[in-house]
Amino acid sequence: MTAPVLVTGSGGKLGRVLRKVWQEERRFRPLWQVRRDPGPGDLLWQIGAPWTGPSLAGGVVVHLAGGRGDLAGNVTLAEAVCRLAEEEGAAHVFLASSSAVYAPDDHADLHETTKPAPGSDYGRSKLAMEQALAHRPHVTFLRIGNVFGCDSLIGNARFVRAVSLTPAPGRAGGPMRSYIGPVSFGRVLGDLIALALRGQPLPRVLNFGLDPAVTMAGLLDAAGFDWAYGPPSPDVLARLVLDVSALGALVDLPKADPAAMAAEWRVLGMDAGARA
Predict the structure, then answer these.
(1) Comparing C-alpha atoms, which of 148, 149, 167 is closest to residue 159?
(2) How many helices (H) and strands (E) does the chain have?
(3) For the purposes of burial, counting CB atoms within 10 Å of the CB of 266, is it exposed (0-12), middle (13-18) or buried (19 or more)?
(4) pLDDT tens-digit profile of 101-148?
(5) What domains lie within the chain, and their CATH numbers?
(6) What is the pLDDT of residues 205-262, one digit of tens each?
């Protein structure tokens, strides 16, 4: 029987991407957890409540759910999910962390061994989650960069006539980031899940994105949005680039290409309502 994969927070941005990308997935059987208003095939379950779903024995848990504005709740939710996985006999848990646990670096790519130094409450909450669950076996923290269309840049650009891009001093194209297209996000995560289901040991922490890094101007151009540089800001994060060599050693990764990522965004219908 196909192994179960519980996806918490499946109604969020990343969860909705996975629902589309995994429609034809045959290596495992997704269980789409929601907190309210379940649709056909959804699993209504409040994280932390007694489990009422099917057995998760030998399966995988992908924890995407957040604290709905309560950042401290990220730790509580992750702890509850890990307890469930242990009680149910799940083989592995992937917890969604973030590149926000790192401090920007103008020169070096950020490796999993780079000392975290989050500069935002969101980043600090994700790091607190990692630290609280560091003792748990069979857990991988995915330090996800930016998923095209689920990010603030492209996600918000759909609703304005022209984007004002904060320049990055000395960097043509504005700030530089690690990105992955939405279809590639689902495929790469699916490949990691398949490894976990086969019993392959996985790292405690994995940076999640594609190489090379891309500029925000290049992303906006690929998506077809009108934009212009706005006023400079001393708070601009000019460069936050992940070293994804550990991820690339486990699964096949495409090259980061803004045009390809924009094409994935359109294929999934995520450009609906864009005012380009």
Answers:
(1) 149
(2) 8, 14
(3) middle
(4) 999 999 999 999 999 999 999 999 999 999 999 999 999 999 999 999
(5) 4-267 (3.40.50.720)
(6) 999 999 999 999 999 999 999 999 999 999 999 999 999 999 999 999 999 999 999 9
**Residue whose tokens read 């999640």:** 208
* Cis status of the peptide bond prior to 212, with omega within 30 of 0: yes
**What's the DSSP call for residue 171?**
B
- Write the secondary structure of 114-158 as one string of H (helix), E (strand) and C (coil): CCCCCCCHHHHHHHHHHHHCCCCCCEEEEEECEECCCCHHHHHHC
- Answering whether pTM is above 0.90, one says yes
pLDDT tens figures, 3-26: 999 999 999 999 999 999 999 999
Beta bridge partners of 171: 168
Read off the tokens for 68.
Answer: 């709905």
Measured CA to CA, the distance from residue 186 to residue 192 in angstroms comes to: 10
Token readout for 126 is 């994700």
Q: In one letter, which amino acid is 14?
A: L
Report residue 16: phi and psi, to 5°.
-65, -35
At 182, the pLDDT band (50, 70, 90 cuts) reads very high
Helix (H, G, I), strand (E, B) or coil at 113: coil
User: Could you give phi then psi for residue 44, rounded to 5 degrees?
Assistant: -85, 115
How many CB atoms sit inside 10 A of residue 207's CB?
28
Read off the amino acid at residue 233: S
